Amino acid sequence: MNLQRIAVIGAGAWGTALANTAARAGRDVTLWARDPAAVAQLTTTRENPRLPGIRLDDRVAATGAISDVVQAEAVLLVVPAQDLRTAATALASHVAQSTPVIACAKGIERGTHRFMTEVISETLPKAVPGILSGPSFAADVARGLPTAVTLACADEAIAAAIARSLGSQTFRPYHTIDVRGVEIGGAAKNVLAIAAGIVAGRKLGASATAALVTRGFAELARFGRALGARSETLTGLSGLGDLILTCSSPQSRNFSLGISLGEGRKPEGKLAEGAFTAAALVELAREKQIEMPIASAVAAVLDGSLTVDQAIESLLTRPFRSEA
């Protein structure tokens, strides 16, 4: 299976980075942007203001016409998790039968508690849904710095074909059929990264950070196993790998949001997916009777039902128990 024509829906930093990545792999790429001004800028200057100093590859054609994706042999849906349903619905009449549509957002839809591939299945029933996730920052990927991610699809042959179509010497997608495991890792780690940022913002120390990340991963794994994820996925790139990256760098929007909360500052700046996913994650965990105290504390801070200090106290005063 040779997937030569790739469409990328969403011309933010991550969408632009993935468009460059696909072009670097030798593909013909259509990059769709909703804003006509963004299309004009990408076409004339070949640069996205969200990725300053990085030129858009010549094999990438920017467009504002959603109908231009009709010839695509695979579609990367690179919009925020809470906007994915709207974007997928707009694609419905422009995606051919059995076209792979790969979600590149990490989250759980609020209200419905749907994962991203479930949203794609509901809105694009003729498509083949998949998910791309893993430890990656848009600026690193756009510059061609070495990065490895996970590409999941229920059909292993399609997952492998997409991985080959996007892969290059510096961008290595590993494929799997464990779609749910990949989705859980990406969604949960964003919420836990906010907690790690709060620890950093409160200057609670490296020992506290290590404890938080370790116990946070225990929550992620417990949630994943309960929903059928494979252990090797949870300990792989899209699980533990992404958690380590997101909990350790201010480049992470979720970690930066946590720092602001920990320092008592009003969060400002770019979208942090974890802020929208936290409530949905905790609600779904409660439905499944899965204990997730760290994620619950983050959700409580975000909705204002607990202060940062109260949330920290709630975790530090939990009963002593076996680590297992």
Summarize the structure in words:
With 324 residues, this protein is of the alpha/beta class. The chain has 14 helices and 8 strands. It has helices spanning 13-24, 36-44, 84-91, 116-123, 138-142, 156-166, 179-201, 206-226, 231-234, 237-246, 253-262, 273-287, 293-302, 308-316, and strands spanning 5-9, 28-32, 60-63, 74-77, 100-103, 128-133, 147-153, 171-176. An 8-stranded mixed beta sheet has the order 3-2-1-4-5-6-7-8, sandwiched between helices. α6 (156-166) links the parallel β7 (147-153) and β8. α7 runs antiparallel to α8 (206-226), α7 crosses α12 (273-287) and α12 packs across α13 (293-302). The longest helix has 23 residues, at 179-201. It is globular.
Biggest β-sheet strands, sense, barrel: 8 strands, mixed
Proportion of beta-strand residues: 5-15%
Task: Indicate the low-confidence ranges by residue numbers.
Answer: none
Using the CA coordinates, give the radius of gyration: 19 Å
Structural class: alpha/beta
The topology string of helices and strands comes to EHEHEEHEHEHEHEHHHHHHHH
Q: How far is it from the N-terminal to the C-terminal residue, by CA?
A: 45 Å
* Strand arrangement, major sheet: 3-2-1-4-5-6-7-8
Count the E strands.
8
Q: Tell the overall outline.
A: globular
Q: What helical percentage do the residues reach?
A: 40-55%
The DSSP helix count reads 14
* Whole-number mean pLDDT: 96
Give keywords.
48% helix; alpha/beta; globular; single chain; 13% strand; 8-stranded mixed beta sheet; 324 residues
Summarize the structure.
The protein is globular. The protein is built from 14 helices and eight strands. 48% of the residues lie in helices and 13% in strands.
